[in-house]
């Protein structure tokens, strides 16, 4: 998986150098894809099919490829942070997870521009290259930096209002909020203690699968914001175990904002 991520990263690095020549198309409102995404995905698919014939795939661009081996499937985002990439911002990643018998087993997130490989395997810890990762130890929300993601243009008005309420609840109670534009890296950075926490709603499995393994193996806690299944809804909250209930409380508190006024 690391070799596949590195090979895709080489292709992305070449394309990033000539970003103005890429063909860009729209999959939906503010949902862009370029030939850089497709090229990187094909490289990962070819690498992993050769290394593990028969495994299935869930890929952002190509979709589902059923394998003959029903226990194992890779979950692939060839380029997480497409919008950054297309705007010449060097904050994007390759994200690959392996799910075995319905459980996330391994995760690799490769930050191409910084040449950082974040990887984790259940029971083996989380690593940045060969340094073991641990989530941040901070317990005080007021000292914490929390990452998030904005709902994209085209989402319901309600999802934008929910986001505004959540930010309104978080800004006075934390040291700062960040929106860097790659959910996979937000989770990898939470695993590495660069962020104290991360929340975002309605992500896709390929945005978060690898990052979930990283955060768990770095000693962090992952939950679904409203109590459902995180890979199903993609609404995720990640942090250390001390901050987690405090962040949950802020998100619950956010849900009550404006309610009185609208009755
Ligand atoms: C996006 C990034 C972003 C998140 C979006 C995702 P993409 O993935 O993870 O941080 O806010 O919701 O769609 O499309 O660049 O792979
Ligand atoms: Ca996309
Ligand atoms: Ca993504
Ligand atoms: Ca993507």
UniProtKB/TrEMBL annotation:
Record carries keyword Hydrolase: yes
Please name the GO terms of the biological process aspect recorded for this protein, alphabetically: inositol metabolic process; phosphatidylinositol phosphate biosynthetic process; signal transduction
Gene3D superfamilies (alphabetical): 3.40.190.80, Fructose-1,6-Bisphosphatase, subunit A, domain 1
Residues annotated for Mg(2+) binding in this entry: 60, 77, 79-80, 207
GO: which molecular function terms?
inositol monophosphate 1-phosphatase activity; metal ion binding
Catalyzed reaction equations: a myo-inositol phosphate + H2O = myo-inositol + phosphate
SUPFAM superfamilies per record = Carbohydrate phosphatase
Q: What is its EC number?
A: 3.1.3.25
Keyword line = Hydrolase, Magnesium, Metal-binding
Q: Does the keyword Transmembrane apply?
A: no
- Cofactor requirements of the protein: Mg(2+)
Give the highest taxon in the source lineage. Answer: Bacteria
Q: Which family does it belong to?
A: Belongs to the inositol monophosphatase superfamily.
Protein name per the record: Inositol-1-monophosphatase
């Amino acid at each position: 998986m690391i070799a596949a991520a590195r090979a895709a990263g080489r292709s992305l690095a070449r394309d990033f150098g000539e970003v103005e020549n890429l063909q860009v198309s729209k999959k939906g409102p503010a949902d862009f894809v370029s030939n850089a995404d497709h090229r990187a995905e094909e490289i990962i698919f070819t690498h992993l099919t050769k290394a593990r014939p028969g495994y299935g795939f869930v890929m952002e661009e190509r979709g589902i490829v059923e394998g003959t081996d029903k226990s194992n499937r890779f979950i692939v985002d060839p380029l997480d942070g497409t919008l950054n990439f297309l705007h010449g911002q060097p904050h994007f990643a390759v994200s690959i997870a392996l799910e075995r018998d319905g459980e996330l087993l391994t995760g690799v997130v490769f930050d191409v521009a910084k040449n950082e490989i974040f990887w984790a395997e259940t029971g083996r810890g989380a690593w940045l290259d060969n340094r073991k990762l641990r989530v941040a130890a901070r317990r005080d929300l007021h000292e914490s930096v929390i990452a998030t993601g904005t709902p994209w243009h085209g989402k319901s008005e309600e999802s934008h209002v929910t986001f505004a309420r959540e930010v309104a609840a978080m800004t006075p109670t934390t040291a700062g909020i960040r929106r860097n534009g790659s959910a996979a890296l937000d989770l990898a950075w939470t695993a590495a203690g660069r962020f104290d926490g991360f929340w975002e709603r309605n992500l896709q499995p390929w945005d978060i699968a690898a990052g979930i393994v990283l955060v768990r193996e770095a000693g962090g806690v992952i939950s679904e914001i409203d109590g459902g299944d995180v890979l199903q809804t993609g609404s995720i909250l990640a942090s250390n175990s001390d901050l987690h209930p405090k962040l949950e409380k802020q998100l619950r508190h956010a849900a009550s904002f404006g309610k009185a006024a609208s009755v």
